[in-house]
Structure formats: C-alpha cells, structure tokens
TrEMBL record:
<dbReference type="Pfam" id="PF14165">
    <property type="entry name" value="YtzH"/>
</dbReference>
<dbReference type="InterPro" id="IPR025547">
    <property type="entry name" value="YtzH"/>
</dbReference>
<protein>
    <recommendedName>
        <fullName>YtzH-like protein</fullName>
    </recommendedName>
</protein>
Length: 92
C-alpha cells in the first residue's frame, strides 16, 4: 500500500527533524528524501506553498549525497533544517 501524501510529508519532516537533532545522517537518507520529494512534487494534492520548501530540501539532499562529511553538511544547514521542519509542520 503506497503512502498518502500526508504520510510522505510526515516522513520527510521526521527525517529532517532527526538529522537536525542527531546531527548525523546517511547517504541512504538523502536518497530517500529525494524520492519522497519527487513523489510530492508531482502530487496535485500537495499544498503549493510547500513545493518551494521541497525544492530547497531537494537541493540540500543532493548536496548531502555528494558531501564528503555528512556531519559537517548537517551542521552547516542546522538553521535551514529547523526552519524547514517548522514550515513543513504547518502544512502537514
């Protein structure tokens, strides 16, 4: 059974929140973020306001996949992670 877009948004928020809190992540998590975002971007039921956030998170994910130091990548983006989690929470 596929995840609803609400479930996908909540999963996205959970991954970002965990990365922010734990200050660690994995390439697999970034790849999962990319898949979630691609699915949400084409879903017409997703609030248009969240799509600009999704584009930013997608860029963050791509940079994470290619980062040589994942912990540093997350630390560098702490402020953004916090903002994204809050913003996404308003739409989920």
């Amino acid at each position: 059974m596929p995840l609803s877009h609400h479930d996908q948004v909540n999963l996205l928020k959970d991954i970002l929140s965990n990365q922010q809190t734990d200050c660690c992540g994995s390439v697999a998590e970034y790849q999962q973020l990319e898949r979630l975002i691609k699915s949400l971007m084409v879903n017409t039921n997703v609030d248009g306001n969240i799509k600009s956030i999704l584009q930013d998170v997608y860029q963050y994910s791509q940079n994470g996949v290619n980062a040589s130091d994942l912990e540093q990548h997350i630390q560098t983006n702490q402020g953004q992670l916090s903002q994204w989690v809050n913003d996404i929470g308003q739409f989920s």
